[in-house]
Amino acid sequence: MSVSTITAGPRRGWRSAGTWIGAIIVGIAAFCALFAPLLVPHDPFAQDIPNRLMVPFWMEGSSPDHLLGTDQLGRDYLARLIYGCRISMMIGVTVSIVSGLIGITLGVLGGFMGGRIDDAVLFAITTRLSIPVVLVALAVVGLLGSSLPLLVITLGLLQWDRFAVVARSTTMQVRNLDFVSAAWCAGCSRFRILTREVLPNIASHLVVVATLEIALAILLEAALSFLGLGVPPPLPSWGLMIAEAKDYMFFSPWVIMIPGAALFVLVLGINLLGDGLRDQFGARSP
Amino acid sequence: MLQFLVRRLIVALLVTVTVMTLAFMLTRLSGDLAISIAGPSATKADIDAVRLAYGLDRPLVVQFFDWVGHAATGDLGDSYFFKTRVSQLIGERMPVTLTLGLTGLVIALVVSLPLGILAAVRENTPFDRAVQVVALLGQAMPSFWLGLILMIVFGLQLGWLPISGADSWQSFIMPGVVLAFSAIPALTRLTRAGMIQSMGSDYIRTARAKGLSRASILLKHALRNAAIPVVAIAAVQLGFMLGGSIVIEQVFALHGVGYLAWESIQKNDFPVVQSVVLVLAVIYVALTMLADMMNAVLDPRLRGG
Known about the structure:
The complex is a heterodimer. Chain A is mostly helical. Chain A has one domain (24-282): MetI-like (MetI-like fold, Orthogonal Bundle).
């Protein structure tokens, strides 16, 4: 390997195909989530027992009326899938907002103030990491009964660590730059420096964390719903759809393949988009 | 080194006490425990009897210090549902969870170390990009879904592996693979990044200039330095795996600690729930401490802090 060879790296950011694939997947999911009631061919809650477990379109004997077939209660699978997308996206975004508010506040405070406050923030992060997330979330939902707001708050309270870590380290880098010193000299208040100088300069890093956190929250919600302590039935969460269909999976494997594949593709899309944004902003991976 | 150890120990102790407080508060979230334990058909007298029997009539502060005091001596109380010692219950179930976690970690390391090293050596080649795609796919895979697919394919259609229970070592293959999937992306990326960084450093150039063999440079010089973050993350990942195995134990009907916790949550068996949270947190704290110490041994530069 000679020093003069400059290897052409893979395409990054918006020049990479992966970023576009991710953006398209997320775009479709967002569209489905926003316009679910207009898109669905059937009521996702309407049961039709005589027409239960109908096969999807690629199999012999499918009905053009139910493109993805029906579930064990005869509910249209495509309609439930689209409504499930709405629930996944909503949980992903709202959990990230809650965890972002907590994590960014703690991280920026620790990184900006330093000293004792930073020690306290670091301790909070260490403690948070030692708590088993799935177990505690299950326990909270199990004790208080499952509901969407409770699920969002619980996951938000448990998933702020990455926001805090990234906000803290990037704030530390920005804190000592010249424009912050200039703002101090100009007599700006601490609050003004935090909100007008520091936050805008770490925002791109936080956007990257937010995309990854949305993906993580979606996977967590699915796992909790799968265990029966997440989204309450009959709401069509993808995790819950897999749990309800589990008893039929050996005879009709597609009943778990369809919601699982949807979950996998959506999370993959969000991660692809997040990675692309990270490269675009030139941020380092958290 | 001693100062470093003492500092880490104090932090670990504080974290443990904080987790105990949180776990205690968690189980008191639902309001009156006695009503939940006594069940829906209980009379007022039954509830009062339960309250008295379990010491729930005492002030919360007293209950809390009672729990902390006993837990410090290894006494985690009695299970309401199983009617046995909680420490005994967890002791019986722990081997399954530990076997599962260690199987997962070994599989994850066996897959991600070679992949990460090879990807780093062939940086920016199709192989490197393929490894990164695999890592991305692994990251997006819902573990319980992967578990069900493996059950259908290897359990039902091919009939190679048992789909549930923990009767033989074969029972741990599928759950181990599923658990490993959650750690492989992070471990592979870290190995790759660490190897690329150390391959570009001065001491590797020196080693090359001395005419050392490629294998010796890679394994003795580069890997030793790249291993530092990998060791730390591997220990942390094992902690996450033990905590996250609750989902996989449920899928494969493995009766480990995670399964115990899931049962106890459904049965309102609070002493078990708060104890499992505590035990898993303590294991995680111990693992991260172990990782820090291994790092200090591997990298003398870290000992000062």
